[in-house]
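pasting for ref
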Amino acid sequence: MAIVAVTILAGWLRMVHVSNPSDYVFDEVYYPKAACILLGWSNNTCTIDSSDEKYWRTTKWDVGSWVHPPLGKWEIAMGIKLFGMRSFGWRISSVVAGTLVVTLTAVMAQLLFGSALWTAVAGLLMAVENLNVVMSRVGLLDIHLEFWIVLAFVLFLLDRRWIDRRQAAVDASAASAEPDDPPGPPGPAAPPHAAEAKSDPSASEASTETAPADRPSQSSPSPIWRPWRFAAGAALGAATAVKWSGAFALFAVVILAYMWETTRRHRGDRRWLRAFGRAVSRESFGIVLALLLTPIAIYMITWLPWFHHFGWSWHDWVANMGATWDFHHSGIQWTQLDAKTGLQTPTHPYYAHPGGWLLLLRPISFYVNNIGTSTAQILAIGNPFIFWASVVALPYVLLTWRRARDWRAGFIIVALLGQYVPWFVQTRPTFFFYVLPLVPFMVLAVTWACRDLSDAKIVVREADSGAVAVNPDTGEEAISTAHVYRPFVVAYVIAVVVVFCLFWPVLTAGRISDLHLRTIVWFRRWI
């Protein structure tokens, strides 16, 4: 019910008045036109007016967005096909994708926490996350990228559950074997009561505790065919077919795959290097099939209409990929020399370095229409209370991973950093909204911190030994029975919703008074 509830809320927030404004917003001057071209409609219908656009239509079967793969434009085209070449038509697929991102984030929370309450909290935070709402209401590619990435991680979590249940069955069979039964082939031992632990989604499955020596585990290599892993690979291929930055998520998933397979083999062998060697030797073939060849196959399938349009010319496609690579690496410059001042100045006023994304240093305005003492605006900005809270929550989750060896904390950290860090080693100018695929994992990190804070109790310890003190009156441990921090968590969630409501007009091109605008523009660089 929690997942259904947050999905309904998210869908309504992203759908209401989505046709406003009725004209193109920001880069909608590219993608809806490209989608219309893919449908084969006329220049007049697709509003292909300039000589540049007509040239790109002839040479690239696109407009200026030819530097991105086609899948996201095909998804936009589906809405245009159903509802026409108008704002509702080119935005409705974004509404669907953005709503499903909220659903999938809630599903991830359920798989990680196993709690309806924290599933609802994660889904609610995602539903009222400002940036996701904005990107769900415009005809750009990034919300489609986020959808495929989040879907891939959900499928990868299902793959872990699938292989853990399979391993638990093997370990249970070995534990119940008769003494005179021949032992299985040597392999890493499983932790005691492994079958029970696997059924609890909150159990720390990354434990390195070993089984008793007289209870050897069965061998733990997995089969080549792991359906959820292949499905995750297909989703990652689709993400890369929307934008090449989808490959960053593929990088994160491969890291997780080897981490989890190494941990699975380390349970009966304290030497991590040997466990890693076993994981590489026994799992690499399956990982290559699912997480390399499958994404490549899906990526190439999305180009089949392009090949058909251009006479199945492999040479032209390779040349197109080369031109795309050149554009992303040298076609855009951060700064250029200002002839009047002699200074290097930004070539775009809203460029934002990745280092400032989580701090909301430079959000981007998509649309502004001044109406006397009021303004209609779309400001692509994150929910400040989610973004800033994640700056604290992420190190906390990282520390939890280190201390408790909890694989769930590791999943959140690797999924986020695996996508985030690559942005620091590329030279292409970036905008704030490129952070969008990271937002679901920021929400999960914040939910994790809220859950731990909500469940925390005050513990009195001895000053000399650090042991839990004993209440001299009752003889019981000096641990509070009240969850003293829970009201702060409730207040935080309410604050997130309130801030979202305050920002609502500038997320949806609603009319906002100058006074209201000044109350939510907290920093000069936000406007």
